[in-house]
Structures are given as C-alpha cells and as structure tokens.
C-alpha cells in the first residue's frame, strides 16, 4: 500500500516516523541532567526518620520512601542528602557503607558528601538539613 499524498510506500512512511520519534525521545531523555528544581523532590517540611541509632557511625542509611540519605561521620553528627539521582530523577536504590547506588543508569555517589563517584550523573546529590529532635532523626525539606 502507498501513501496517497506522496506515492511513497506506507511501510517506509511509518518506519521513518517511528525512527524520528525514537531518536528525538532518546536524545531528549539522555542529553540533560535533572533540572535543579527536581533534584530535591520528595516530602516537604519535617520528615520523621525514626531512631537516630539506625544510622551507623562512619556509614550512611537510605530512607528510600522519604528520598533521603543520612550519613553519620561521628556519633553526634548527622548529614543529609537528597536520594534523588541527579541524572534523571530516579530514587537511589541502595547504600552500601558510604556509597549510594542508582540502579536506573548506574550512577554512584559518595553518601557522605553527595559527590559523583561514577556517572552518567555529573551533579552531586544536594544537601538536606537533618538533626535530632525529641529523640527522633528529623530531615527538613523546604
């Protein structure tokens, strides 16, 4: 069957259109880092993360549902980071020791300071204030 307006075989028209859509979509999806306004997505305000002792001294813990990573460099010091990957806004899938891993595209981050250890992400995980209040670990997201 041919396209009545151009005389081109219908299969050629459809295949060309599909290729154009796929190429455009792939280039758009992979060409940019996550916009700054999306990096810190997740629940807003004070977020109760529970027992501060759940974060190991010298390590970090992922709170995936809350989209927060908390590290604990010293017994009384807690530091928070967004757990939203800066490559394409997937939520980090695991933290081992002080390394955060995003399974979507393989990015790895230093969970203590947010630095990128392995791309495709090139932007660090942004900080989120955390502290202990009333015996609970609390993250605050504006």
From TrEMBL:
Residues 31-41 have a biased composition (Polar residues). Keywords: 2Fe-2S, Disulfide bond, Iron, Iron-sulfur, Metal-binding, Signal. GO terms for cellular component: membrane. Residues 30-53 are annotated as: Disordered. SUPFAM superfamilies: ISP domain. The keyword Metal-binding applies. InterPro entries: Rieske_2Fe-2S (IPR017941), Rieske_2Fe-2S_sf (IPR036922), Rieske_Fe-S_prot (IPR014349), Rieske_Fe-S_prot_C (IPR005805), TAT_signal (IPR006311). Residues 39-139 form the Rieske domain. The keyword Protein transport does not apply. Residues 1-29 form the signal peptide. Its cofactor is [2Fe-2S] cluster. GO terms for molecular function: 2 iron, 2 sulfur cluster binding; metal ion binding; monooxygenase activity; oxidoreductase activity, acting on paired donors, with incorporation or reduction of molecular oxygen. It comes from the Bacteria. Iron-sulfur subunit of the cytochrome bc1 complex, an essential component of the respiratory electron transport chain required for ATP synthesis. The bc1 complex catalyzes the oxidation of menaquinol and the reduction of cytochrome c in the respiratory chain. The bc1 complex operates through a Q-cycle mechanism that couples electron transfer to generation of the proton gradient that drives ATP synthesis. This is Cytochrome bc1 complex Rieske iron-sulfur subunit. It comes from Streptomyces smaragdinus. The gene is petC_1.
């Amino acid at each position: 069957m041919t396209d009545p307006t151009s005389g081109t075989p219908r299969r050629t028209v459809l295949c060309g259109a599909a290729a154009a859509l796929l190429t455009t979509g792939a280039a758009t999806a992979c060409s940019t880092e996550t916009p700054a306004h999306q990096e810190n997505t997740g629940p807003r305000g004070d977020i109760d993360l529970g027992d501060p002792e759940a974060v190991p001294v010298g390590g970090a813990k992922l709170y995936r549902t809350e989209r927060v990573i908390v590290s604990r460099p010293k017994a009384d010091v807690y530091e928070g980071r967004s757990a939203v990957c800066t490559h394409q806004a997937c939520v980090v899938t695991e933290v081992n020791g002080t390394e955060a891993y995003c399974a979507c595209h393989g990015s790895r981050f230093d969970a203590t300071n947010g630095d990128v250890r392995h791309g495709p992400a090139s932007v660090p995980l942004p900080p989120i204030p955390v502290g202990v209040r009333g015996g609970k670990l609390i993250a605050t997201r504006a």
